[in-house]
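Objective 1.3, modelling of assemblies. Example input:
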Amino acid sequence: MATKFIKYENALLKIANQTILANQATIGVEASLQPITNVTGSTIRYAPAAPIKGTLSFTHYCTGSFHDFLNPITAIEHTGEPLNGSLGGVQFASGYVRSLSFDVQPFQPIVFQSQIDIYGELTQLSDDGDEDLDRKNLPVIPEDTLIGHGLRSYLAGDDLGVNKKVSFSYSASADRNPVVTIPNELPYRVTKENVMISMSVEGEDFGDILKVTGNQAGVEIQVYDVYGDSAITQFGCTGQIYRNNLSATAGGYIQGGLSLSQEFLTGKAEV
Amino acid sequence: MIINSGINNINVSAFELGNNYSMFDVVYYSGFTDGGSENYATQSQSGHYYYTGAAATSSASNTPPSANSPWTQKFFFESSYGSSVSYKNSSYDNNFGDGYYSYLSKSENSLKAAFSVQLSKRSDKEAKAAVHLLEDSFNKGPKPSGGYTGIYWTPFSPYDKEHEFYIENIENQLEYPNVNNISTVFYDETQSTTDWQDFFIPFKNTQGFFKIGEDYSRDDIVYASGSSYTNYTSGWYYYTGLDTTAASASNGPAANDSLWVKDTFYFDINKGIQFKEAPRFYKQNFPNEFYIRVDDGINKSLLFLNFILRGRSDKEAKSILHFLEKHRGKDQFRFTPPAPYNQDKVFVCPEWSHTLNFKDNNDISVKFIEQPIDYITRQVTFKSLITIDPYIRER
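Predicted structure (C-alpha cells):
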C-alpha cells in the first residue's frame, strides 16, 4: 500500500454505500499470531490463532435520517450484515456494528460515535477511490445541512424523577463473536450477544431514592435538528436505574445524575 | 403428530409442494400431493430431510429424494475450530520381563478414531436441524432386523472422505438467544489398517505414487514401490528437505542419503517437553516400613513421552498424522529425543490426538513409548497361503 497524504476533505468514509459525514475515523486490522518455537528455542513459524480482525471507529454528525445499520439494536444479524465500506480508498468487506454512543449537551451538535468490527484483509480501491463519484461530489458541510443538535433534542419519559435535564448520554453495545468453520479463515456468522443499552442523565436532581432492586424506568431520546419539525431519530431505553449521584462544586450548582441500563434482546430467530 | 416420524424430541413438519424452504429447514417426507393426485414415497425414500441449498419454492422437480435435490440426509454441518480427532490402538500388551514387551493388536481394525465435533455458536435454526439429524440417526435402519444405519459424513480436511459414523450422545448448550453450542463424537469402528491406501486420511490427500520429475517439498507424502524397492523398502515416505526439489532416481526414496524418510519421526518438537522417568525396580517391604530395593533386570528406564506438537501448518499436520496412521499404533519408528536424551531410539505411538485450532494451526498430542529392540529393519516374511476364490477361478 503506497504512502499517501489525502486531505481530510477528500478522505471519503462510506459504509453500505452510504456516505458518512465523519469528523474523525480510524480503521485498522491485526492478525492474531502465535509464535511456535522448537525445543532449541528457534522459531518454527507463526501460527494464526484467529481471523484477521480490526475496528473501524468514527464519529459523525447526524445530517439526515439516521442509518439504522449503525445501530447495534436494530441491525439484526443477517439483515444488512456483513457491511462493506471504505475509508480513504481502503476497503473492507465484512463489517459488524458493535457499538453506538452519543452525548446530548446544551447548545452542542450531537456527535455519534460508532465502532464496527471488521474481519478479513483490507483491500485497496483503484486510484485510492479517486473515481468514486460520491467523493467527487461531496461538498464541505453545506450551510443548509441539518445536524442533530442538543438545542431541541430532548429526553421523554417521567420515570426518572428529574424535571430539568441538563445533559444525557446514550450507549448501545454488543459482543460480536465470530463463528469460523473448518477450513475457512473468515467467519460465516458473527453472533450478537450481551446487547446492553446504557444511559446517564444529569439534571437538577437524581430522581427517586435508589432501591436495592433498582428503579424501573422507560425513556426515549428524541433527536431533533435546530430547525426541523420532526425528530430525525429516536433511541429508547427501558430498564433499571442502578446508580444515583449528587455533586456540588464551588461556583457551580448542585447537580444530580443517574444511570440506567437495559439488557436488550435483539430478537430470536424464528425456527 | 406425523406418522412414521420416528422418535425425536423435536417436531418437524411434513414436506409439501409450494412451500418456501431455506437453509437448515427440516421436513418429514413420505410423498406429496400434486393437483389432487397422491404421490407416495417408497419406504427407502421416506424419512427426514434437511435443506442445504439456497431458498426456493418446493416443486415436483425438487422433492427431497429427487436427483440433485437441495435436501440431504447426510451430516452437512460445518465443524468449528476446536474440533478434534483422537486415535487409540486397542492391543494386548505382552510383557516378557527385562523391559521386553510387544503390542498385539486386538484385530485388524483395532486402531480407532473418534471425531469430536463442535458446532459453536450456531443459530437456533441450524441447531435445530443438527440436533434433529443426530437424534434421528438412532431411528434409521433396516427394520425390523434390529440394527440401525449410521450417519454419512465427510469430515473436515485432512480426513475428508465420506464414512458411515455412529454417535452415542449429543450435547446442546443454549448459550444465548439464537446462539447454541452443539457437540458430539462420531465413531467409525470399521476402518481397517489392512487398507494400504486409505485410513481416515484418504489417498487423494497425499502426493500419491512417487514420480521421477515431480517437484516435492517438505512434508510431502508419497507411496514408493516397484522394481527399485524390496518388500521392506516399499511403502509410505515423507519428504524432509527444506527446499522444493525435482525428483530423480538419485534423490528418490530408494537412493542413498535420501531426504525421504519412512520410519523416522523427523518433525520438530516444541519446547516445554517433559521427561518423567520411573525406572523399574523391586521394592521389598519388611516390617517397620523397612524397604529393600532390588534390581529388576535390564531396560529399566525406557522412555515414556507425552508431548504436544503445537501450531503446525495444515500440511505438516497432515504429514504427522499420516505418519502416525501408517504406523498403526503398534509399528515401530525411529525418534531422537532432544538433548540430553539425544540417542536414536525406537518408539511406538499407540495414542494421539489432533485439535484444529484455526486454519494452518494444528496441535497434535502424542504418546510415545520406547521399545528396547529395534526390529524396523528386520525382514518380515509373509508366510500365509493365499488361495484364489474357487468361484473366481472357474469363471
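The first strand of chain B starts at residue 13 and ends at 14.
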